[in-house]
Amino acid sequence: MFFRLDFFTFFLVISALTSVAFGAPLNDIPSSVLAEPVNNTHILEARAPAQFTHPGVLIDLHQLETIRTNVKAGREPWSKSFSALRTSKFAKLGRKPSPWKDVYCGFYDKPSYGCSDERRDALSAYAAALAWYTTNNKVYAQQAIRYMNAWAGTLRTHGGPNNGIQTGWAGASWARAAEIIRYTHAGWASKDIKAFEKMLRTIYLPVVIKGSKNNGNWELVMMEAAQGISVFLNDHASYDEAMNKFLHRVPAYIYLRSDGPYPKVAPPNNLPTRALVEEYWHGQSNFWEDGLAQETCRDFSHLGSGLSSIAHVSETSHIQGHDLYQGDVGYRLRHALEFHTRYQTGASNLPAWLCGGKVKKGLGPVTEVGFNALAVRLRHDMPHTKVWTKENRPAYTNWLDAGFETLSHAKGPL
After folding, report:
1. Binning pLDDT at 50, 70 and 90, where does residue 45 land?
2. Cα dist. 207→42, 45, 171, 201, 322 in Å?
3. Of 119, 278, 287, 340, most Cβ neighbours within 10 A?
4. What is the pLDDT of residue 399?
5. Has residue 34 got a pLDDT over 80?
6. Could you tell me if 300 and 53 are in contact, meaning their C-beta atoms sit under 8 angstroms apart?
7. CB 127: neighbour CB atoms within 10 A?
8. Residue 346: how many CA atoms within 13 Å on its side-chain side?
């Protein structure tokens, strides 16, 4: 294919490339040369289904049955993973909920008023819900219900500089737990379900559905929570709004060389200059490999949270009838997982062009969901992700919103 460029466009492109090569400032270059906004997501739409599948947030009934069957038979890796869950503090029977009326969270939990208690209780409700279905022991179901009822009957406000992401972390876990308990005949009273619905609808959803201009992992987990809450509430409009924001954010979070010389920009962000692009990408100035992410040069811990949320949203979408793994989202996630596990595992030396030759590792147990969808179900070759996933088995939790994902999503031994 041949292209014809007018002189002005040719001049801009050559000027940009020359300036990049010789380190000259590019503060005056138009955004059309620097980075395209993400404005063509209509080809990737993942609209709400006519009728939601329940349970259908991250895990469905078939997966729950698979867990129960494999644990009962003592098969690995499910047996060891369930033992890790059952003996963890999250599934400890008799532990009392710690609800707060007003949760206020500063950056890095400074200050922290109810922040860790909220995250821990939400993850505990999910752990207890998994334990309930795996064992068919209603003591676990009652434990999950206690957590959810306690918070629904107490919480009134969320606030603080970290409010958006805190609400996302807790909201994502609450939605998973609530879906399992509500739709598996666990004995959750109708009035209590309505109270929990009200909490999610009035306290959580208005915060997370707004999205964020901060680092990409914020908006990704907020959309994860918004999607899950929308499924639980059977709220089609909020589901569509969350997916629209998500489908704009993913291409702006994970770079592909086909995007051009600079990454795409999500609508909330305004990055019209090279300096702003590099600042938002934590000093990264060269975009030369598929899978590089907006938080690669920040640290792999925050980056891992972002990739985890992309996999979680894709998994819920798949349950609800739209397989994002087979489109642009899955392609970007696959390359990002391989790109970062390659360096996390030490399989490759870090090149000087990437993050100045230094990265902060710490990816965490966040690859199980994406790996099993992309490498096992869809049969893509992902050797570095396989090594890291196996090393982290049985996956425990990142203490935020990912937990026990070898149990829930492993397809077999590695």
Report:
1. low
2. 25, 23, 10, 10, 25
3. 340
4. 84
5. no
6. no
7. 27
8. 1
